[in-house]
Amino acid sequence: xxxxxxxxxxxxxxxxxxxxxxxxxxxxxxxGPAGGDGxxxxxxxxxxxxxxxxxxDFRYKRVxxxxxxxxxxxxxxxxxxxxxxxxxxPVGTLVRDExxxxxxxxxxxxxxxxxxxxxxxxxxGNARYTTSTRQAPTFAQMGFKGQERTIVLELxxxxxxxxxxxxxxxxxxxxxxxxxxxxxxxxxxFTTLSPNLGVVYLxxxxxxxxxxxxxxxxxxxxxxxxxxxxxxxxxxxGVLIHVLDGSGAYYRDPLExxxxxxxxxxxxxxxxxxxxxxxxxxxxxxxEAQEREPALREELEGRGYTVFSGSAAxxxxxxxxxxKVYEVLQNTDIEYDSLxxxxxxxxxxxxxxxxxxxxNGRYIVDGPYIERLLGSTFFDDRDSLRYFQENLRKNGVxxxxxxxxxxxxQSVFIADYEFEFFE
Length: 423
Prior knowledge:
The chain is an alpha/beta fold. Helices cover 21% and strands 24% of the residues. It is built from 9 helices and 18 strands. The protein has a 6-stranded mixed beta sheet, with helices on both faces. A hairpin with a 2-residue loop joins strand 17 (411-414) and strand 18 (417-420). It is elongated. Residues 346-423 form the OCT domain.
């Protein structure tokens, strides 16, 4: 089974907490702070593996978590960093944000690495907070939280050449005779339920990867039938071989089929309209196809298409078409990025560090940075509390609250805490 769409959750490890510790050694009467920093949490990293062909591995496991960094220790010992976890994905995998459906990264090159969830940094130990006026800090910093997100993995095959056409026109048979692929072949519609790949060898240094794109029907660009499940694989082919049933079996008109398929390709992605396309009139071993072929060829060549005719069943006259495909392919620049920049996640869409707002008459301050600041604050300790207030002022929280109209004595809600505002 070919799996080309999966939704998974990735969670990076949290950073270890900084330690509050003191030197307590013999003959060192004024030891001072000695708390070490916490270790970095492990990240979740995607790796484009050229040996993978499907997303099957992600069908059975949907949640991936990296380890947390170790906490800091006494004697200024740092906590150990956690190991990153590597998730191998096939080359050609698009990674989307599950909430917005926008693209995060396109894993289109073998060996490509991308940090999909960043591990949290370790918190600072109290030894880091020593200043000329604060000789004995009694607080440390909480470790940073690791990033967590739900993503959609969407595989688009990186085939050089794609075979397109209506069901039962002979695409699978053609692939089987031009390559070593062994697709399932039968005389009914939708025999092929997943894209098949094969390597076409024409001689030393002359080869290309060909994909049999399963049968398309009218309305596919709108999701009818197998719809978008297979149209996505056409986007990345450098050249299309449009296979027609020259015999007109099942009372179909090959020319009408040709026009219908091209409408669906264009309807799905306008860029497909300009993709190089070679027409192959198949089933020329049948008398009906031989009768139709001259008129069909004249019409399509008149529209500017390169047309070949032959028989996949008998392999007659296939080789000239393959050499022409290879020639066109050599002069075709394959653009893998078929989507505009507007489809990608933008930096400003990501979670802010501090948010200051007024909701239903309440003044609320939250965000990842504030949560970390709260976690490293000991409110019974004067130095720690002063450090907390200084950070709020330095990061513009106090000024923003004034802009929102806060008055002396009113409440400010920060995470699960309620504070009274005063100058």
